[in-house]
Automatic annotation (TrEMBL):
<dbReference type="InterPro" id="IPR017853">
    <property type="entry name" value="GH"/>
</dbReference>
<dbReference type="GO" id="GO:0000272">
    <property type="term" value="P:polysaccharide catabolic process"/>
</dbReference>
<dbReference type="InterPro" id="IPR001371">
    <property type="entry name" value="Glyco_hydro_14B_pln"/>
</dbReference>
<dbReference type="Pfam" id="PF01373">
    <property type="entry name" value="Glyco_hydro_14"/>
</dbReference>
<dbReference type="GO" id="GO:0016161">
    <property type="term" value="F:beta-amylase activity"/>
</dbReference>
<keyword id="KW-0624">Polysaccharide degradation</keyword>
<keyword id="KW-0378">Hydrolase</keyword>
<keyword id="KW-0119">Carbohydrate metabolism</keyword>
<protein>
    <recommendedName>
        <fullName>Beta-amylase</fullName>
        <ecNumber>3.2.1.2</ecNumber>
    </recommendedName>
</protein>
<dbReference type="InterPro" id="IPR001554">
    <property type="entry name" value="Glyco_hydro_14"/>
</dbReference>
<comment type="similarity">
    <text>Belongs to the glycosyl hydrolase 14 family.</text>
</comment>
<keyword id="KW-0326">Glycosidase</keyword>
Amino acid sequence: MILLARWRPRVPLEASPQTGMLLKHGERILSSATSVFDGKGVKIFMKISRIHWHYGTRSHAPELTAGYYNTRYRDGYLSIAQMLARHGAIFNFTCIEMRDHEHAQDALCAPEKLVKQVAFATASAQVPLAGENAIPRYDEYAHEQILQASSLDVDGSTFDREMCAFTYLRMNPSLFHPENWRRFVGFVKKMNEGKGKEKEDGEWVEEEEKAVKMAVNDPTQQITVQLYFSSRLLTAVNGQ
């Protein structure tokens, strides 16, 4: 005997009293934040958690459970982006370093597709998009994915924009392993070059060598080097 079943919500999600509660909460928080920081030159970011598991299903149950009304037929991230647009806030999203195939197939994870959807939603709502990596990664494979995602070339064509900021997680002792550090320096340099900018081949050579020696040979200088490259990375993604 073969049983066939089709997923259909028992109650239309639009009729659920929980629908919209997350957005209403966001509206309250943003209203309070803007009332405090308006006119003071402070940029407000709202971090939106990535829920990429079971993204490949029709129901998107994990997202719905978290309050993201995102299904095959409704873009739940567009409504979040539109909320941020009303308050002049920035959409901060994570899992920028992840690829779909890096996860177990039975989990139907799709972080790349999720980032693509968020990029389109923020473009439609005209909201700046910022990003960060979800887990510590020090390999070039992850760095390449971050570079690709931060360029917002999500569909093979080129958006006339880039991510406005990127937060690199996490600066711990593993980052200062000589090989990890050299890869990180190269990554920051590429972020600094940006999309459509001329490469500055000789600009960083002396600074790279000095920073690596400081970090590897003198642990007391690691915080100084961290702050220096953090500022370079922030400057890079802001295009300054």
